[in-house]
Amino acid sequence: MSNITKINSAEFLKGIIGTDDILYDGVPEYAFVGRSNVGKSSTINSLVNRKDLVKTSNRPGKTTEINFFGINNKKCYFVDLPGYGYAKRSPKEKESIEKLILWYLMYSDAAVSKVVIILDAKAGLTDFDSEMIRVLREKEHPYLIIANKVDKLNQKETSAQMRSIKEAAHEATVVPYSATEVTPKERDALLREIFAED
Questions:
Q1: Which residues of the chain have pLDDT under 70?
Q2: How many whole angstroms separate alpha carbon 79 and alpha carbon 118?
């Protein structure tokens, strides 16, 4: 685990599609995973306080590699896994993306410190999110859930959705968040959750 309290620097290192030395260099890895169009890139950018570290696209599902970002001179990595479930991909493409994600989490022996699942707060858990949680529990990977886009819900809807997601996710930590309207205080609180030792 990393004892990071503040992110001072972040840089793109490389994208991989299979076994690579970066997986085994002992640097703690914090993996971000979620369905296409839940705002995964925007969330990572908001956490590192940069607009353009992770390329956001008007075309969801663009990323097909596992992208590694060095945080605070490689004290840890943020690992951006490809978005899954993008409707316009062919079944074969979808399957290869899902296989890549599951390979990283289940078989790669990477130094995964925590997995951050990003959801659309309004949509809640999808089937593949639930499958992801099952895999993480089986592999005993610590995980937390970011319910992004809460700015689209009112307070009552947010409370109801947080309860429903938490229940469906085996009482996991669920953090309400808005990557587009986050305050420094909210960002710091989320970073504390991500880097907290379970």
A1: 1-3, 56-63, 86-88, 198
A2: 13
CA 110 to chain CA centroid, Å, is 16
Packing angle, helices 40-47 and 184-195, rounded to 10: 100
pLDDT at 94: 83
Side-chain half-sphere exposure of 146, counting CA atoms within 13 A: 33
| Strand 76-80, strand 143-148: pairing | unpaired
pLDDT, residue 90, reads 81
Burial of 173 (0-12, 13-18, 19+ CB in 10 A): middle
All domains of the chain, ordered by start, with CATH?
Answer: 10-195 (3.40.50.300)
Nearest CA to 27 among 69, 80, 76?
76
